[in-house]
Amino acid sequence: MRARPVVLPAAVFAVLLSACVPQGDPAVGPAPFTDNFDRHELGELWHNTGGPYELRDGQLHIRGAHNKPLWLRRTLPHDVRLEVDVRSESDAGDIKLELFGDGESMATTTSYTATSYVVIFGGWGNSLNVLARMNEHAEDRVVGPRYPVVKGRTYRLKVERRGSVITAWADDHQLARMDDPEPLSGRGHDHFAFNNWESDLWFDNLQITPL
């Protein structure tokens, strides 16, 4: 006797599908993904884990998120270029991005270990530029040349990954470069986020381009 095929109810199928694909998020590409934040609400495109992110004057504004990222609901390709305009209105600078994270992690205590690479421009009192693999305080982080953030200046921040190498720039100035023999990739390491501790930051003109 031939076994009858199992037909799952639509609701059950949807649950199983979401379990296979984190948040059910579509991928970036092949065309570049852009967001100019020229609207009133963040909308379903972004997953806010609890920070005071807001859209104001056509820009993304954040201050005092305390490591509660704003995750983009799109998955990244392995090789990618991310560009965004950013301005700090704090003397401390402290501009932070996360790439290749899980799309949902956030700080639950004062200590936070990311699931991603963490790019920090002008961290630690505007004294360090850092590229870290998940733990921004770990000994394996890369500290780049001193290049402090100028309060009120708009920078074009760019981060690229090609193969095992990830590099961050502010305008044409290289902030840090890491060659990771075991690159973060695949499920749980395929999302981008804005992040923040206390600094007053303004972002605009995000573009993510598959390479």
Question: What does this protein structure show overall?
Answer:
The protein has 2 helices and 15 strands. The longest helix has 11 residues, at 10-20. A hairpin with an 8-residue loop joins strand 9 and strand 10 (142-143). 37% of the residues are buried. It is mainly beta. Helices cover 7% and strands 40% of the residues. Strands 1, 3, 4, 6, 11, 12, 13 and 15 form an 8-stranded antiparallel β-sheet that branches. The chain has one domain (30-210): Exo-inulinase, domain 1 (Jelly Rolls, Sandwich). The protein has helices spanning 10-20, 123-126, and strands at residues 33-35, 46-48, 54-56, 59-63, 70-72, 80-88, 95-101, 117-122, 128-133, 142-143, 154-162, 165-170, 173-179, 191-195, 200-210. The model is unreliable at 1-21 (pLDDT under 50).
What would you give as the CATH superfamily?
Exo-inulinase, domain 1
State the CATH class.
Mainly Beta
What's the number of structural domains?
1
The tally of helices reads 2
Look at the helices and sheets and give the structural class: mainly beta
Number of strands: 15
